């Protein structure tokens, strides 16, 4: 989770995004966001990783998560990119809003739901699937399908719909497993690309160096 004039959360596996604009970002607003946008929709996760905003550093927020059995971790102060997936989601949202609005940036509040929806129904390179299908087990019916019927629309039979939907749900775990394998392969290829671009560095005694700090768990 992170805050940029609002709250943004992403599920690390499915890449599903929840985002909500807020006039003020208080501890209470963060608690309400977790309850409404995460727990009541998907259940209580084992972990929530946040940035180091003052709302998230407040012990009250950590205690609130603990009341649902959720462990709270914070990205390192020295390395906020440790919460990288949310930072990427932020950039995706901001870039899409800029493309949609152009000169009318003040209308971003109205455009935010459209941007989040577009992300949910677009295939992700890491998994090869849309966040929607990995979350719900079937592809979303897009509004455009009402005007330009797809194959799914043309073969739709009301009496067969429930059977077809159950078949899709039976395959969801298989699709998630395949997506997990693809994501692992994507991460490995990204690591190889990074390693090939990073050469060895040599240090002398008394040289100043940066020390890695793992994300805090307070």
TrEMBL record:
GO terms (BP aspect): DNA integration
Domain of life, per lineage: Eukaryota
Transmembrane segments: none
Gene3D superfamilies per record: Ribonuclease H-like superfamily/Ribonuclease H (3.30.420.10)
Protein name (database record): Integrase catalytic domain-containing protein
Domain named Integrase catalytic: residues: 1-139
PROSITE patterns, per the entry: INTEGRASE
Pfam families: rve
GO molecular function, one term: nucleic acid binding
């Amino acid at each position: 989770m992170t805050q940029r004039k609002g709250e943004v959360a992403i599920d690390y596996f499915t890449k599903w995004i929840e985002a909500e604009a807020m006039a003020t970002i208080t501890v209470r607003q963060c608690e309400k966001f977790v309850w409404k946008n995460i727990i009541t929709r998907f259940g209580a996760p084992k972990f929530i990783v946040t940035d180091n905003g003052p709302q998230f550093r407040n012990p009250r927020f950590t205690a609130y998560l603990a009341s649902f059995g959720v462990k709270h971790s914070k990205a390192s102060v020295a390395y906020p990119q440790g919460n990288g997936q949310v930072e990427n989601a932020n950039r995706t949202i901001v870039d899409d809003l800029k493309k949609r609005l152009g000169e009318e940036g003040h209308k971003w509040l109205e455009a935010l739901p459209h941007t989040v929806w577009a992300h949910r129904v677009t295939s992700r390179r890491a998994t090869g699937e849309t966040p929607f299908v990995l979350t719900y087990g079937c592809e979303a019916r897009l509004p455009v399908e009402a005007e330009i019927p797809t194959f799914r629309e043309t073969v739709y039979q009301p009496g067969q719909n429930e059977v077809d939907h159950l078949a899709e749900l039976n395959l969801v775990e298989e699709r998630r497993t395949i997506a997990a394998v693809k994501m692992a392969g994507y991460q490995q290829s990204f690591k190889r690309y990074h390693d090939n671009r990073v050469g060895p560095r040599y240090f002398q005694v008394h040289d100043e160096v940066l020390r890695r700090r793992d994300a805090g768990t307070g």
